[in-house]
Amino acid sequence: KKLHTLHIDKKRRPLTASAETMKLQFPFISLDEVEAYKIFEAEANPNKQAAILRSIDAMKREPEFTAGRTGRVFTNLTNMPKALRGLLKYKDTYFHESDIRSCQPLMLGKLLNNSQLVRACREEDFYMLLGEKVYEMTGEKLTRDEVKDKVMIYVLNAKRVNGYPVWKGATIDYAFKAKFPQAHKVLETRVRADHKKSQRLIATLQGMEAAIIFQSVLPAAQKFSPVSFTVHDSVSVPICFSKRIDAIMNHHLNQIP
Description:
two-stranded antiparallel ribbon, about 10% strand, single chain, 12 helices
């Protein structure tokens, strides 16, 4: 029934109060440029080098804060490579990042009320689990990052030719079907035949993520941390508060109905 009520907001949402506070705190975040340039020099991929330089430059500009239609907030840090985010500091203290593990698959499991999928995300490594299933079925070896980058697009995408997915890496879809048959059946019969429904579902999952981050976890973090920031499914605070933010994140994930 939940899948029949999905929709996408046509207008961008205003920043929440917690996002406005994060915007005020942003000037207190700095990047260790010396270490950042070392990462740049060690990187052989030209595209990744360019991304590193863009991120270094972004930290020198005025804060950019935009709320998307799903409630996600886009900032100067959104596209920063994770290796560089590890070099962000508040005064002389680095940040600790607490994230929603296997976020989109977890939100999907919650939405579908599929306990098997939820357990795979909360108690195991969903992406490794699916990658192992791909290898078992086809002999194709995929890294965790390769599975993570592709899984939601391939599992939810409706584009097919003669019943077979037309994208490269379709084995992820077959592995998902073998591992989570009930969830796959619901998606196959109610979502994937209609591209618009697929897009609405993706937007809903992002909205569920944003609600947890900006309505629960970030406001809680701002009560004790002098500076905090988000990157989609994560909240970062100075490393001295690491245990506290991890406990808060875990608490709110357990509250999802």
